[in-house]
Specification:
Strand order of the largest sheet of chain B: 2-1-3
Strand content of chain B: 5-15%
Oligomer: heterodimer
Largest sheet of chain B: 3 strands, antiparallel
CATH class of chain B: Mainly Alpha
Structural class of chain B: mainly alpha
Helix content of chain A: 25-40%
Number of strands of chain B: 5
CATH superfamily of the largest domain in chain A: P-loop containing nucleotide triphosphate hydrolases
Radius of gyration of chain B: 22 Å
Strand order of the largest sheet of chain A: 6-7-8-3-9-10
Radius of gyration of chain A: 19 Å
Number of helices of chain B: 13
CATH architecture of chain B: Orthogonal Bundle
Strand content of chain A: 15-25%
Shape of chain A: globular
CATH class of the largest domain in chain A: Alpha Beta
Distance between the termini of chain B: 15 Å
CATH topology of the largest domain in chain A: Rossmann fold
Chain lengths: 252, 354
């Protein structure tokens, strides 16, 4: 059974049909790309997968469980984590605390233990610190643990977002333009990191990206959206040689 | 491992400064009292200062840590004040030991204020920014007006409560506790400087612990970016409400402390001006900065007494100060200062790393 099953997904905002009749299937451990020209509805798909928008019709199942109608924080607990196109970090918290917030439902203790700092507080906090430093090491951020997130350079902010998403121990990781604003070197480095993350954490990845080098370099399968509809799907080679896709991107 | 140690000390700094200030101030004032070096006007201000410090710390939880503007914090103070008075008056014969009676009154006052926090918070916390401010402002006024028409009396048969007019007849030996717009008079003065000091210590301990915990991080993540907070599995509504209610509970306890310091208390004392006054403490002390709130609350309560000559202009000066702070916070000067500080810190970190 597929990890993520999207069937005939659609959403309307008033009279605008932003996404229509979209079906996707992603196997466990897959690394799949969602591409398409600007305004095709890619981020809207992410917002429906994470419960930010409620689809008008269609179904979403994660490992057989229905996601429609669930709140964003519930969907996260079920195993979907994401990053954002316009970076959304907790700016006034340190890098360490940003990722610790991601561990909120992974390492827990009660409110009473919170306000009294008794019971398992110390043990759990130390366990969190270690887990966080492990994750930060993957992204080369371990030396920045006590820097405020808003003071990080842009590229590292993008990485921190992925680190925070990983901390929630997701089954499915959604990356919204992870390479946006990066130079070719940084993009290359990011590709390696994404591969490493998939191997180390055994997570299924769906990513939106405009950088074709990244998409063709690491994605095994692609879905192409245009005007909210599925235009094509297949391996990167098939898709990029598809005349309809070329037309959608470059015009006639 | 060295890095995590540094982080712990960074968190501990808040504790050290906050508790340091409070304990030092307490010691100084106690010596002043013992040696008789304290003016009677300042002595009269001691308990109100303690109450205002607790108010400021608790409002900082809503405004600085949760990031939502509340303009009705005095409403919760009022709930705690009058609930506390009813408790202490009712228990006067049962529990003769004053500190215990005060503590019980504070717990009840805090709990009732927390209940008020839930009632107001559930519908209101869906709103954001200006709208939330407007509704909390209205809440403060509503509480004031309810207490203004509240009559509570007590006789051998127990408590009698009515609104608008005293509809009950008290039996022989009965006593009115809250008398509508006349408020309460003849309250036993149970609050002492020491009890205020203890309440501050408890508040600081609980609030600082909360901030440096899983719950506190969740609350601050909601403040910094609620959409991202939801995306990592944090229930925004739950943590907003939690912070708001805890904040209300401490305001209630501060209210009890405050009320038990005066023989006469009326609802008009806990009006919009008081809410704004506490907000000024929080903004001036720094949003999210707990020890800043303590200092601001103390200075701004003592200063008007010292500057009696310009008393009429107090609210005017507050307004100007608030505007000046806001301008400064958005100014290039502040940005430059912050950059300098960050650069210094970075170079220090780099040196340590080498």
């Amino acid at each position: 059974m597929a990890m993520l099953e999207v069937t005939k997904l659609g959403i309307s905002f008033g009279g605008l049909r932003a996404v229509d009749d979209l079906s996707m299937e992603i196997e466990k451990g897959g690394l799949v790309g969602l591409i398409g020209p600007n305004g095709a509805g890619k981020t809207t798909v992410f917002n429906m997968l994470t419960g930010v928008y409620r689809p008008t019709d269609g179904g979403i199942r994660l490992g057989g469980e229905n996601l429609i109608g669930k709140k964003p924080h519930e969907i996260c607990k079920m195993g979907v984590a994401r990053t954002f196109q316009n970076i959304r970090l907790f700016g006034k918290l340190s890098v360490l605390d940003n990722v610790k917030v991601g561990l909120h439902n992974e390492v827990t203790y009660s409110l009473v233990e919170s306000v009294l700092h008794l019971g398992s507080y110390g043990k759990k906090e130390r366990a969190m610190d270690e887990k966080v430093l492990d994750i930060l090491k993957v992204f080369g951020l371990e030396g920045k643990a006590d820097v405020l997130a808003s003071n990080l350079p842009y590229g590292q902010q993008r990485k921190l977002e992925i680190a925070r998403a990983l901390a929630t121990d997701p089954k499915l990781l959604l990356l919204d333009e992870p390479a946006a604003g990066m130079n070719p070197n940084e993009t290359g480095e990011l590709m390696e990191t994404i591969k490493l993350v998939r191997e180390k954490y055994g997570v299924t990845i769906l990513l939106i990206e405009h950088d074709m080098k990244l998409v063709t370099g690491i994605c095994e399968y692609l879905y192409v959206l245009n005007f909210g509809k599925l235009l094509a799907e297949g391996t990167p080679k098939e898709v990029l040689n598809n005349p309809e896709v070329i037309t959608a991107y470059l015009g006639e | 491992m060295k890095k995590t140690k540094n982080l712990l000390t960074a968190g501990r700094r808040d504790y050290l400064i906050s508790f340091g200030i409070v304990i030092l101030a307490f010691a100084v004032v106690q010596t002043m009292i013992l040696t008789g070096n304290i003016t009677s006007s300042l002595k009269g201000q001691l308990v109100p200062i303690c109450a205002y410090i607790v108010m400021a710390v608790s409002l900082n939880l809503t405004v600085g840590i949760l990031g939502e503007l509340s303009l009705g914090h005095a409403g919760f103070m009022s709930v705690g004040a009058f609930a506390g008075i009813v408790v202490t008056t009712s228990l006067a014969d049962v529990i003769p030991f004053a500190p215990l009676r005060l503590a019980l009154a504070m717990i009840v006052g805090g709990l009732l204020a927390a209940v008020a926090g839930v009632i107001i918070g559930v519908p209101v916390l869906r709103l954001k920014g200006d709208y939330l401010a407007i509704v909390t402002l209205a809440f403060g006024e509503i509480i004031k007006n309810i207490v203004n028409v509240l009559y509570i009396g007590r006789d051998a048969k127990g408590l009698h409560v009515s609104l608008l007019e005293p509809k009950f007849e008290l039996a022989e030996g009965g006593k009115m506790i809250i008398n509508g717009p006349m408020g309460v008079s003849g309250v036993a003065k149970l609050s002492t400087f020491t009890s205020g000091f203890v309440l501050i210590l408890i508040t600081l301990f609980l609030v600082l612990n909360l901030i440096h915990s899983r719950t506190g991080r969740a609350i601050m993540s909601v403040r910094d970016n609620s959409i991202a907070a939801e995306s990592v599995g944090i229930s925004v509504t739950r943590y907003k409400l939690l912070a708001f209610v805890i904040s209300a509970a401490f305001a209630g306890m501060a209210g009890t402390l405050y009320a038990m310091n005066f023989s006469t208390v009326t609802a008009a004392k806990f009006d919009f001006n008081t809410s704004i006054l506490v907000l000024v403490f929080v903004v001036l002390g720094g949003l999210g900065n707990i020890w800043g709130s303590i200092i601001a609350a103390t200075l701004l309560t003592v200063l008007p007494e010292l500057l009696r000559a310009v008393r009429d202009y107090r609210m005017l000066i507050y307004a100007i100060l608030l505007i000046a702070m806001m301008l400064f916070n958005n100014s290039k000067l502040k940005v430059r200062l912050m950059e300098k500080r960050a650069a210094k810190r970075d170079s220090k970190l780099n040196k340590e790393a080498d």
